[in-house]
Amino acid sequence: MNVNQNNSIIYCDNKSSIKLLLAEKRKRCKSCLVLFSYWGARDLCTKIPGTDPLLREGFDVICVQSNCNDWHQNIADKGIDKLRCVLKEEYTYAKGYGSSMGGFGAIFYSQILGLNSVLALSPQFKISKDFDNRWYKFNENIVWKQTMEMAKEYAGLIHLIYDPMDLDSKHGEAIKNNFKRATVLCHKIKFASHPTTNYFNDSDVLKQLLLSFAKDGFQIPKVKKKYNKTYLRALSHQLSKNSNRCRWAKNIMLMGIELGDEGHSALRHVSNLSYRLKEIDDAILFAKKAVDAKDNNEVSLAAHKEHLKNMLSMLS
Questions:
Q1: Cα–Cα–Cα angle for 63, 69, 73, nearest 5°?
Q2: What digits encode the pLDDT tens for the residues 130-141?
Q3: Based on the number of CB atoms within 10 Å of its own CB, is 154 exposed (0-12), middle (13-18) or buried (19 or more)?
Q4: Is residue 184 scored above 60 in pLDDT?
Q5: What's CA 54's distance to the chain center, in Å?
Q6: Which residues, 6 or more positions from 193, have their beta carbon under 8 angstroms from its beta carbon?
């Protein structure tokens, strides 16, 4: 494949795609980044977030995408074979990047694709119920052709970023313990939650993080945590585990809401805390807001309506 031609679709079927995008500052780019899509992505043959800053800085980008939350299991062997050939023939240096499910993909395919290094934000090692039950319903519907253990001979550099207070720490330790030949660097950020991508996005430094990785000067950007919605929410949840810290937990969550954290789970969290503090008016107010939140799905909406019903019964 001649990468001096227009942007190219390397592979595409009804569940996955691999697309090459060429750098804007086009001389003769000999390095590229392979980006793997995250859970919840739906569009194929598009740009994964982070693509544009890399293109502007002169890096070619290859987007590997799935539209079915399959932890990149349905990418056909012939698609990966084509991608491996492109990387071998056209580039002297290639790196992988992904968040959550995308982090799994970037690490797993690192050995097959011959990637020099990987940056993975909150990646999973496996999603079986006995390991971590957050995604077990998806696990039951996936035919696992590729497991992380199959890639453990990878001998490059892996940067892992995750919250040590979160279950993600279990995945991070499993990756470090299994990838004996690789250099695995664990960057732990307390209360960065899952995925840590949101934490960096809240402070508008995800681009800075990704570019530092691409340019071989990897650094974790500084974040003003008291202005970071993701950090404040995670800290509030941690504090709420102690009944003596509910007031503190509520005040911190209200700070996050003032910064724009108006998702249904944040609003419900304040309602729950208000109930525990016996502040029923606030419990009802935020229960109503949780019901009205724009990011509800059918399951969350039903749960919030039932919760609101229970809160209103407190007045009768």
A1: 70
A2: 999 999 888 988
A3: buried
A4: yes
A5: 18
A6: 163, 166, 199, 230, 231, 233, 234
